What we know:
Elements: H1 6-16, E1 21-23, E2 26-32, H2 36-53, E3 58-62, E4 65-70, H3 80-92
Antiparallel strand pairs: 1-2, 2-4, 3-4
Helix pairs in contact: 2-3
This protein binds 7,8-dihydrobiopterin.
7,8-dihydrobiopterin is lined by residues 54-56, 72-74.
Amino acid sequence: MKPMENEAIRLELEEIDSDWHLDGGKLHRLFVFSDFVEAFGFMTQAAIHAEKMNHHPEWSNVYKKVEVFLVTHEAGGITERDFELAGIMDSLA
Length: 93
Ligand code: HBI
């Protein structure tokens, strides 16, 4: 799998029209929920999708915030799989 070109990443970011942005060569988004239960529920659902896709987020949780970074390590950059998981997370949030 080949990483996406910067221009392709820029266009895709424009298209998905949510808070994802580029940070250190990874897709980054901070999700803020109403409380810890909502945040952890989101992580539980996202984890099931991630495991099915065999594509796993780098993420952390503090109370009601979930910070996510997506990159495809084996491609050495961002791929369509990262955008796919980003889209799933958007629809779960
Ligand atoms: N998740 N985000 C991400 N990126 C990867 O490259 C990746 C993964 N989950 C599993 C995975 N790669 C495996 O294919 C290999 O590490 C075997």
